[in-house]
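Project standup — Tuesday

K.O.: blocked on the structure for the chain from last sprint. Re-posting the sequence here as requested.
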Amino acid sequence: MRITMIGTGYVGLVSGACFAEFGAEVICVDCDSAKIDRLNRGEIPIFETGLESLVARNHKEGRLLFQTDTASAVAGSDVVFIAVGTPERRGDGAADLQYVYQAARDVAHGIKKFTVVVTKSTVPVGTGQEVARIIRAENPDANFEMASNPEFLREGAAIEDFMHPDRVVIGVESDRAKQVLKNLYQPLYRIETPILFTNIATAELIKYAANAFLATKITFINQIANLCEAVGADVHHVAKGMGLDRRIGSPFLQPGPGYGGSCFPKDTQALAKTAREHGQPVGIVEQVIEANQRQKLRMVQKIVDALSGQVAGKQLAVLGLTFKPNTDDLRDAPALTILPVLLQKGAVIRAFDPEGMREATHLIPGIELAQEPYEACKNADAVIILTEWNQFRNLQLDRLKELMTPQSDGRYCLCDLRNIYEPEIMRNLGFHYTCVGR
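H.V.: unblocked you, prediction finished:
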């Protein structure tokens, strides 16, 4: 089977490489010629575990190609995936669909035989219908069927998620399109992956509903964590007690500085906007959005309080900038909210992140960057853990104290906003230890 993947961003590149691994002939198309040149040279523009070797192997074996010409790629394809960005639109929170609609116009001019056109980008309900309308307007003779196949890839575990997913959701309106996509996903049928076929509108909504629910779960445990601090409870024990209930489950019950990333912030906003437009507002989701922003700002106050109310002139070491470990993605990361406020209050910030520093240089102007964690901590009045990278889970605490500047009481200030360490142990070791919900 021949596939065209429009877009070589996170979703398009991972999905294209994985389909090639399944044995399909895949052409990844992007209008950014510099990016295509890099990919053809074997350079991967994003950090994702295992992706470089997967792309290299399938490119070498001729199953994965990269080019800028959409029409020629589409002309010989059985399935065309639209996997371009749908960022949040400024002003109203809606998904910006301009790249999806431009891709639809480009695809329309390349269709020469029966083709299944699939939206893989995260798009609001009704987008598939509009994409089909655009294609028909641009090419009335186009022989195609529309489908929706939302992605559920976690950054840092995307290849595993594609190869062994919890489920595959496919929205179709005809048996013919259903059969084509069923054939494409045959390798997953063999391992008994649940594959849900539904209509296009339902598939589009499933993606938003799933992400909004997970964002709600994160926000709920963060609010419970704040309550735990007020009443003297331990949020980790609360979360465990909740998670052992099979109806609830433990994933996404880890307290912290709020969610971020490429999906949850924009998808909750887009779902709330869609719901308002249809006269069915989702008040829970709207409150989640507001509470998540408050949680990030609450972390600023925790840091200020840990430094006895004064951060002006203080040197802060920040460990972790990306919204989660095992990615280079800073989109809507808590760091983008927390650090600028601390800078405005007069703090001096030196940060280290294993993968995110290239982006940080222009996203967080004013911070200094270190080459390794202990360099960041030299002469620091406080160390702040913002991302739970594995290398921060076993820091040499004695070395940390040798590097840091003690507080007036002789203790060392460590703000662990990911609850990596145990409070009692850290306090016994001479740290003024601040965490979340404990």
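K.O.: great, moving the ticket to review. The chain has two domains: 2-198, 214-434. The mean pLDDT is 96.
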